[in-house]
Each structure stands twice: as structure tokens, then as C-alpha cells.
Amino acid sequence: MQAFVGRHASFFILAAVVLVQLIFLGYQVTRKHNVRLIQMWAAAVFDPFERSLHGLTNATAGAWTSFHDLSEAERENQRLRDELAHAQAQILLLSEDGTENAHLRELLNLQRQIPYRTVAATVIAASPGTSSVITIDKGSKNGLTTDRPAITSDGILGKTVAVFPHTAQVLMITDRASGVGALLEKNGSEGVLKGDGDGLCQLDYILNENQVSPGELVVTSGLDQIYPKGLLVGRVESVRKGDIYKAIAVRPAAALDRLENVLVILQSSDSEKPAKQPHKRQ
User: Fold this and answer.
1) Which domain holds residue 50?
2) To which H or E segment does residue 120 belong?
3) 138 and 232, same domain (yes or no)
4) Residue 86: what pLDDT?
5) CATH number, domain at 137?
6) How many domains does the chain have?
7) Measured at the alpha carbon of residue 102, what is the angle toward residues 200 and 152, in degrees to the nearest 5?
8) Closest among 200, 224, 203, 222 to 212, alpha carbons compared
9) In 3D, which of 94, 77, 53, 114 has the Cα closest to residue 266?
10) 10-residue block means of pLDDT along the chain (282 residues)?
11) Are the CB atoms for 208 and 245 separated by under 8 Å?
């Protein structure tokens, strides 16, 4: 490297002198508006770098502004989603309150209509498994005993099978262990209603010669000495002939899978007295 510089020393000296002369000339010579030539050269050299730096600065500022705006928009969207969820929850709560109030009004009307002493109770638990048993928040302290009918404004749901001081268990009519004296309202044919364990009931001991059609109402007969006569049980779901008796499937009138409030009929002096429960005909 030193040998190369030594051989071309005169060239480097000449180049340096020319450069100094150009710089001096640029400093001395002025153009329009008293702008020195060296300033124009410097501007020409550094202008691309300044433009690039300016563009990069503007792009960075624009990206930051866009990011900030997106963040603000996302926060605003989240706030609006939270407000919407809260409003929907309030609407659902009000709807549930309205439905519960309607059920309570129906239960109160039923309590006034039937000629029996009753106790209103709330369902607090349901037993898991195949047994259709619910627990209510009233017990012996409220006058309950075993084998007391539990009903809703839609129809009967079962009877008390275990009573404790402050709670009681109710066996629903869809349970296989349940049995209800029932009759077909249209022709008065009497039978025994038993649960099938799958949400329906079977009305047994109705002879094949009796006319039965789907949709007919089934009510309590009162012969079991538990359910007063005339309470709505349900409607005939299907009918087919058997060897001697018809196979009649009955769908309970009460929504047994959505029970919240019920009435328990206490011991009456006249269990055969027809109940004046209104039938919801469709």
C-alpha cells in the first residue's frame, strides 16, 4: 500500500490541489440570490439523503398515527361490545323476571280457583339419574305430609314421597314407580296412568273397544285417593290396540323439565270433590 502511494504521490497531490481549488472556487462564486456555489453542491449531494430521511420520518409518523388510531378503535369496539353484552344480559334478566312473574300469577290464580288448601313451593333441586324426583323448599313445618299432590297451572306433576321439616321430595308422574288414577275426559273411560321413565306416561286398562283419539284430554279420576278428581294430567299422544287393552301414550300437560314454582295440595276433607282446574285447550 505504501509503495502504491509512493509511486502515485504526485497524482494524489495534484488531486488534492484541484479539490481545494474547487472548494475555494465554490466558496467564492455566487449564483442567484447570493447563494454560493458550494452550498448548491452540498445541497445537490445531501438532498437525496434528506429526502429519504424526511420520507422515512413521515412514514414512521403515519404508521404510529395509524397504530394509535387502530388501538383507539379497538378499545372503542371492545367498550361497545361490553355495553352490548351488558344490555343483552339485562334484557334476558328482565325477560326471565317477566316469565317468572307470569308463572307466579298463574299459580296464584290457580290457588284461588281450586277448592283445596294449598302451599306454594319453589323447586330447589332435581335428583340425577333415571329417578324423576324433585326437591321443594316446603316441608312438615308447612303442613306437608307424604302422598300429597303437587300441581302447576298447567297440570299435575307428582306427589310427595319424602317429607322433612323444611323440604320435601316429589316423585313425578313420568317416573316408572308413579301411579295416578286417571280417565279420558271425552268418554269417561278410567284407567291407571304410569310413567315410562322417558318423559311420557302410559294409560293402562282402557279396553280396545273404547274409542280413543290422539289429542284427547286425560284428567284425574280421584279413585287413587291422592289426586282430587278433575285435575288435568295431559293429552293422548298416540293410541294402538293391544291384546285386550289399548296402548295409550300420554304427554303430561305440565312442563316437567322446566319446573320452578308448584302448589302442594294439603289434606282435604273431601278428596272426591271435583277440582276446578281450568283446562288449557288448544
Assistant:
1) 31-113
2) strand 118-126
3) yes
4) 66
5) 2.40.10.340
6) 2
7) 35
8) 203
9) 114
10) 63 64 54 53 60 69 72 78 69 52 68 83 78 90 94 92 95 93 93 92 94 94 92 95 93 88 76 50 44
11) yes
